Amino acid sequence: MPLLHIVDGKAVASGKRTILARLASFLANPFVSAWQHRDLIDAILRRELAERFQGSAAGWVWAITAPLLSLVVYTVAFSGGPVTLPGGGKSGSPFDYALFIFGGLIAFNLFTEMAYRAPSLLHEYAHFIKQTIFPADMLPIISTLRATFYATIGLVLMLIAQLVLTGTLHLTVLLLPLWFVPFVAFLIGLTWILSAAGAFTRDTAYLMMTVAPLLMFATPVFFSTDTFSPTLKLIFYVNILTGFIEILRYLVVFGQIPDLWVCLWVLFCSLATFYFGFWFFGKQRDSIADVI
Amino acid sequence: MSSESEVVIRARHLSKAYRLYANEQQWMKQVLFGSWRTYYRSFWALKDISFEVRRGESVGILGRNGCGKSTLLQIVCGMLRPTGGEIWVNGRIAPVLALGGTFDAESTGRQNVLIGGAVLGLKRHEILARMESIADFASIGDFINQPVKLYSAGMRMRLAFAICAHIDPEILVVDEALAVGDAAFQRKCMDWIDNFRKRGTLLFVSHATGEVVRLCDHALWIDDGRVRARGDTADVARAYGKALRVEHDDMKRFSAV
Fold first, then answer.
1. Is B16 exposed, middle or buried (0-12, 13-18, 19+ CB in 10 A)?
2. For chain A, what are the domain ranges?
3. Adjacency order of strands within the sheet including B7-20
4. Chain B contact residues (CB < 8 Å to A)
5. Could you report how far apart the first and last alpha carbons of chain B are, in Å?
6. Quick one: which H or E segment has residue A291?
7. Does an H or E element contain B12, and which?
């Protein structure tokens, strides 16, 4: 089988396949491709992780200091005694509200980091894309993994803080991976879309810089949607982040199993974004090398 | 001469058009209303290119700046997709295009070898196993542990070529990579390429005839997106050199003013 066979701008597929087989291979494609390029992903991810604090003497201390400091600030600022928690109703400790906000910010900041970086991502790696045989669709995966790595530090700090401050960790924390994987899938999908669009026009970056700060107020970071009327609540859930943030709080702060419908909605959104992003990037891929 | 099955690269009537927009607004209009009108001018970098390369052959590609050489190579390597025509490649291909340009300035030489090797398709343990040999080939001494931003152009090129020399490709694509190195290192690279020719297929691109004549059995002269001449390297190089002198005369005419 030839390595490369293109006729009139279209890759020649090997043999005819049924619709079902094509669907299956489309669904498996992102994973197969990531597995094939695992050594490249590994090499660039190492570079990216090292690069973040290159030239700083304290290095990794910064990665822990920043989230730790904000956690301390929230704890001091928002712990005025036992509050009625916006979500779970019962508040065991005065620190719950600080953790409530910190949890929301971990998810939201991870989202904004990707939203800001994605549009310029392919420009950063333009020399790779133009001059080497480079799987550009792996870049969004790499940069999301890198951002996720730092968010994980925040999440671990949050769990430690909860254990220290309130003395307990809820059993539902064990379900966190089930939240984490769809969230990362959603972000990778989003980064595929934004980076492909960003390759063509810088307007994508300006759009994100304008929209992301506003989105903070359309996302329940500092409040909860539980007190809202059902209609308003539904409108809030159109913002996919709402679901992710609420589920995170339910699992970590309240120690409850979130609503099944919320979980299903979030799962659906994350899978839809992931596969749409992959499809969209693949469609734009050949023009990307021309314009970048 | 050889049977059809030995062809590793086949190009038939390849063409490549770039879309040129007057400004960003035109691009946006094309995205929105492209089905009704076109808002760009087409620039045909390649117009009609057909050639075949068989396993074990060394083919030189000659041509002046902007004639479409690099576009053609990028298509052969799969970085760009042709607008029309057919391209068929069979075998692991390694481009020694401007690999040095992909180096990350902040990372050390070793880190860049790891990334460069991974980009060219090597496994991590394979790269680590060849690291000393790569450092040895590049012979840039202790600089291998320094950030690449401290390298001279020649040192970058040395490291880049050293990586390419260690990846065992079936088809090697060399694009004027040797222009920067000093004579001794150029000879080292040439010797290596000479050796490689016994095992693999070589596609060698240059605007200088000397290296092409030395390394290649066949040559292809590309001018303005078309194949202007092909065949025995010496014949093509002679015709190309003649055409170059005409252009050279033009330049003299300008410098006299």
1. buried
2. 30-291
3. A10-11, A4-7, B84-89, B7-20, B41-54, B226-232, B218-223, B58-62, B201-206, B171-175, B93-96
4. 18-19, 24, 27-28, 31, 74, 77-93, 95, 97-99, 101-102, 104, 106-107, 111, 114-115, 117-124
5. 53
6. helix A260-291
7. strand B7-20
Residue A130 has its nearest CB partner, among B79, B81, B119, at: B79
Residue B31's Cβ-count burial label (10 Å; 0-12, 13-18, 19+) is: exposed
Choose from A3, A14, A49, A203 for mutation: most chain B CBs within 10 A: A3
Q: Is A6 on the interface with B (CB under 8 A)?
A: yes
* CA-based nearest residue to A101, from A224, A260, A236: A224
Nearest CA in chain A to B95: A132
Of the candidates B90, B99, B120, the beta carbon closest to that of A2 is on: B90
**Tokens in use for A129?**
């894309």
The model's confidence at residue B255, banded by pLDDT at 50, 70 and 90, is low
A256 Cβ neighbours under 8 A, 6+ residues apart: A88, A172, A250
Q: State the nearest Cα–Cα gap between B198 and chain A, in angstroms.
A: 22
Cβ–Cβ below 8 Å for A133 and B18? no
Considering only CB atoms, B115 lies closest to which of A43, A129, A201, namely: A43
In the structure encoding, which two tokens stand for residue B145, read together?
Answer: 């542990």
Minimal C-alpha gap between A286 and chain B (Å):
6
Measured between alpha carbons, how far is A173 from A152 in angstroms, rounded to an integer?
14
**Higher per-residue pLDDT: A86 or B80:** B80
Q: Please report the sign of the dihedral spanned by the C-alpha atoms of residue B176, residue B182, residue B188, residue B190.
A: positive
pLDDT tens column, A162-213: 888 877 888 888 888 989 999 999 999 999 999 999 988 888 999 999 998 8
Structure tokens at B55: 């396993």
SS3 A35: helix
Q: Given the cut 0.95, state whether the ipTM is greater than it.
A: no
A92: confidence class by pLDDT, cuts 50, 70, 90: low
pLDDT at B241 over 50: yes
